[in-house]
């Protein structure tokens, strides 16, 4: 049950971020749910590999390259899910930050 609740919270976070950030569009709640699942899978499978491969540049940039990896995950999700579009780097960066903040806030309220 916890997994379903987390997916719903993530889908709501995706909808909120798409509503607030210009340049990000989500067609429906079902699309937001699919985006949440795809982002979860990408963050579980692809992101750790990228983090390990980019350790030198992440250290060189004092961790700021980690934000670029988050943007790449959003771009990859936009490429995989039809009905979800991101128009630029800044929009993807703001989307990833806002989704993380909203998910954290809703998780802390829900418990």
TrEMBL record:
<keyword id="KW-1133">Transmembrane helix</keyword>
<keyword id="KW-0812">Transmembrane</keyword>
<feature type="transmembrane region" description="Helical">
    <location>
        <begin position="84"/>
        <end position="106"/>
    </location>
</feature>
<feature type="transmembrane region" description="Helical">
    <location>
        <begin position="28"/>
        <end position="46"/>
    </location>
</feature>
<dbReference type="Pfam" id="PF04020">
    <property type="entry name" value="Phage_holin_4_2"/>
</dbReference>
<keyword id="KW-0472">Membrane</keyword>
<protein>
    <submittedName>
        <fullName>Phage holin family protein</fullName>
    </submittedName>
</protein>
<dbReference type="InterPro" id="IPR007165">
    <property type="entry name" value="Phage_holin_4_2"/>
</dbReference>
<feature type="transmembrane region" description="Helical">
    <location>
        <begin position="53"/>
        <end position="78"/>
    </location>
</feature>
């Amino acid at each position: 049950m916890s997994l379903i609740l987390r997916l719903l919270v993530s889908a709501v976070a995706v909808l909120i971020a798409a509503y607030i950030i210009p340049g990000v569009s989500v067609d429906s709640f079902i699309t937001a749910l699919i985006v949440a699942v795809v982002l979860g899978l990408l963050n579980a499978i692809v992101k750790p590999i990228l983090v390990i491969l980019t350790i030198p540049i992440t250290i060189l940039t004092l961790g700021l390259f980690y934000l670029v990896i988050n943007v790449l995950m959003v771009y990859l999700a936009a490429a995989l899910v039809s009905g979800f579009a991101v128009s630029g780097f800044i929009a993807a960066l703001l989307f990833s930050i806002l989704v993380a903040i909203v998910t954290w806030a809703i998780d802390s309220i829900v418990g």
